Amino acid sequence: MSENAMGRRQAMRGAGIAAGGVAIAGLASGPALANDDGGGLLGSWLCVRQDNGSPDKIRLVLSFAGGGVFVSHDISPAGPPFTGTWSRHGKWFRATFWSGLPGDQGPGSLGPTVRVRLVGTVVKGKLSGTYRVTVFAPGSDTTIIDTATGKVTGRRIAA
User: How many other CB atoms are there within 10 angstroms of residue 106's CB atom?
Assistant: First the structure.
């Protein structure tokens, strides 16, 4: 397998929730306020994600912070952290988050970037959602080199 193909595979696996689900049409909301409880979302959630068509189940942590700050991090197997923003609309939330991957020309070289769009809800303490991952060519935010979709479920992490 070529390094480029391996890089795409790692991008999809490391796509931190390969999440980003199919955005629900008309879903719109403003950024969460720092003093808002996020409708019960604030905090971190231990989750499992699975790309459609793949048997692999990836464990990850999703974190919702005040001011619309969002962090996703695959933990088993480990992947790069993703950062972005989230918003709430009624019972639904959505998040868009990004990460970069190493280039195949060695340290410091441009690599692909990954955007994930997640749409979900929390019902009876259980988070669930769908996501869409888009991998962009190095140095581009328009040239798509791969995509994936999948589902995520999880529960709040107790302090």
Answer: 7
Q: If DSSP codes are grouped into helix, strand and coil, which group holds residue 155?
A: strand
| CB burial of residue 48 (10 Å; 0-12, 13-18, 19+) | middle
CA–CA gap between residue 54 and residue 47 (Å, rounded): 17
d(CA 111, CA 119): 27
Model confidence band, residue 4 (pLDDT cutoffs 50, 70, 90): very low
Judged against a pLDDT cut of 70, whether residue 12 lies above it is answered with no
Dmax (CA) of the chain? 49
Enumerate the domain spans of the chain. Answer: 3-156
Report d(CA 87, CA 70) in Å as an integer.
9
Mean pLDDT of 84-88: 97
Check residue 57 and report its DSSP letter: -
Q: What pLDDT, on a 0 to 100 scale, did the predictor assign at position 38?
A: 63
CATH, domain 3-156, list 3.40.50.360, 2.30.30.40, 2.40.128.120, 2.130.10.10: 2.40.128.120
> Which amino acid is present at 1?
M
- Say how many Å lie between the first and final Cα of the chain, rounded: 43
Select from 159, 149, 154 the least CA-distant residue to 75: 154
